[in-house]
Structure formats: structure tokens, C-alpha cells
From TrEMBL:
NCBIfam families xrefs: PRK11537.1
GO MF entries: hydrolase activity
Known catalytic reactions: GTP + H2O = GDP + phosphate + H(+)
Domain of life: Bacteria
Native source species: Phytopseudomonas seleniipraecipitans
Entry's EC annotation: 3.6.5.-
Database matches in SMART domains: CobW_C
Enzyme class: hydrolase
Cited function: Zinc chaperone that directly transfers zinc cofactor to target proteins, thereby activating them. Zinc is transferred from the CXCC motif in the GTPase domain to the zinc binding site in target proteins in a process requiring GTP hydrolysis.
UniProt name for this protein: GTPase
High-level lineage: Bacteria, Pseudomonadati, Pseudomonadota, Gammaproteobacteria, Pseudomonadales
Amino acid sequence: MPATPIPVTVLSGFLGSGKTTLLRHMLRAEHGLRLAVIENEYSDTPIDSRLLGDAPVKVMTLANGCVCCSILGELEKALLLLLEKRDAGELQFDRLVIECTGLADPAPVAQTFLATPELCERYRLDGIITLVDAVNAGRHLQEPIAQAQVGFADRILLSKTDLVDAATLEALSARLQRINRQAPIHVVEHGAVDLGELFGVHGFELNGNATPRLRPVAAGKSSDRIATLVLTTTTPIDLQRLSGFMETLLHDHGNALLRYKGVLDIAGESRRMVFQGVLQLYGFDWDEEWGVDEARESVIVFIGDSLPNEAIQESFAALTA
Ligand SMILES: Nc1nc2c(ncn2[C@@H]2O[C@H](COP(=O)(O)OP(=O)(O)OP(=O)(O)O)[C@@H](O)[C@H]2O)c(=O)[nH]1
């Protein structure tokens, strides 16, 4: 029987946003999970300098049974090494957390799990968690990469909220929610947060989880590069025309579509169609049937980078015209 894939959480967030602080909390928390952590960066924190030597990958088992792995360079090598050691009974862990560097785009890390066959079988990308530093967010979010980190997230965590007033926090939450209307926002206090909110996200699975859940946003227009675009219609959509629409969109803007999810009412079909994707990688499937009295509605949510919203809305409207 194939082994159950190991769930993987990618931890992203701009420089100094509290990733290491959260990791420490994760490694200390009494959750009963055996975590493996990959620190995908070179930094001067004590844990790293102890781990890094000449070897590209160093693995250390912590006192509580968690595994900490530090790499210089290739993530794939570290992932395969962890599997090898786990299969040989040298390491035990049932969940993996990968800390990205503050300046990194989390997409390549996520794509490693979606596009590398040996890794897809043994690991399951569970979710991307992005930390946002409430004190420095104004400055950080001027950087497109910091906005992209928010755009890719399944969960957004706000750190250092103890240092800002309620109005600042509210304005920041509204801004983040406009960038990414799908991800719930949680406060993390010096790394402390309910881990139940962060693990078991199933953010990249189609069945039961592709239906977009839109968070309410305050009125106002987004001035950020990364923003959420929502397309809806109550008219059933022709499957072929939909395929054409998606193909064109992916061809023209594939690299700008950070995350997207949809549930669709397809003409002549009693089941709902669900799909989701990251950049050019996407999958779709037929899901449950629509209920007899259920109001059918197609909803697609794109979190995109500088998308021509009006043009996309027009071509979508033309599908059912
Ligand atoms: N006041 C306050 N400080 C915090 C909080 N979370 C983290 N910090 C502090 O913020 C600083 C940066 O935290 P780190 O956990 O090192 O951040 P990081 O994202 O790992 O940083 P890099 O790896 O350099 O990108 C540290 O001094 C933490 O103690 C918080 O909720 N409140």
C-alpha cells in the first residue's frame, strides 16, 4: 500500500515578520505531532550556525522528537534525504514545515510539491501561511514580493499587533483582505497561535475544498498590485467556451495568476465543476451534484498581479451572453 503523503506547510513572510518566532512556538507546542522543519535559508541565528557546516543538508533531531533540517541550496535534495531517513527508520515525523527566506516568493517552493512526481507521491502540500508584520507592513507591502507572499497565502498571520493601535490594525486587515479575499487572517502573539488554524488546511485539494470562500472586505478600491478578482454568474456556462476562456487567460496572464479557485455551474451538468490552480498549474474535477432547491451560481476567484480586471470581466460575461 502506498504510504500516506506527508502534509507540508510552507511558511512565508517578509524579513523580520516573525517566522522563526512562530517556528519556535510550533516546535514547543504540545500538539503531539512530530514535526520536521526545513529552514530554507542561510541566516545567523544560533540554530542555523549550529546546523550549517560544509554539507548542503544537515538534519538534527530536537529534544521533543521534532526534526530540524537546514539546507544550503536545493530543496529537492533535502526533501528526498528526509524521506530516505524516514523510510530507513532513522527519523520520525508526520508533518513538514518549510520556512522560506523573507525575500522569497513562496511559489517555487509550492510548485516543487505540485510538479515533481517523486515528491507529489510522498508529500502533500497542505497550505501556505504568510506572516505579516503589523508594525512594518506599510513599508514591506511597497515591495511586490511582500504583496505576492500575501496573495499566495491560505492563511495570513498578523504579528506584532501588540505594537500598533486598533485603527492601524483594522486598516491593515482591510488592505490584506483586498489583496487576498480567500485567506482568513489570524493574530499571532510572539509566535503563539492555535496550530489547528494552520495545519489541516487542504489548500490545494479539489474535492470539498475548491469552493471559494470569500472574506468580507470594506468598501474601497485596492491600490495594490496584487488583488482579488471575483467573477460570478447565475447563468449556466458552456464547458467548451469556458475552456477557451481559461486557455486564453492562462496564455495571456498565467504567470500573474497567483492562486485561483472556482466552482462552476456547467450547462447540462448536474454536478458542480471545481477547479483550482497556482500560476500555470491547475486541476479541475467534477464535485457533488447541485441540490434540488439550491441556487446555482458560478464563482471564480483569482488572486492576480496587475490583472486587467475589466477586460477579464467582459470576456467572462461574454461566455453566457
Ligand atoms: N512585539 C512583538 N515582537 C515580535 C512578535 N513576533 C516576533 N517578534 C520579534 O520580531 C523580531 C523578528 O522575529 P523573527 O521571528 O526573527 O522574524 P523572521 O521572520 O524569522 O526574520 P527573518 O528570518 O530575518 O526574515 C524578533 O525580535 C522577535 O522577537 C510579536 O508578536 N510582537
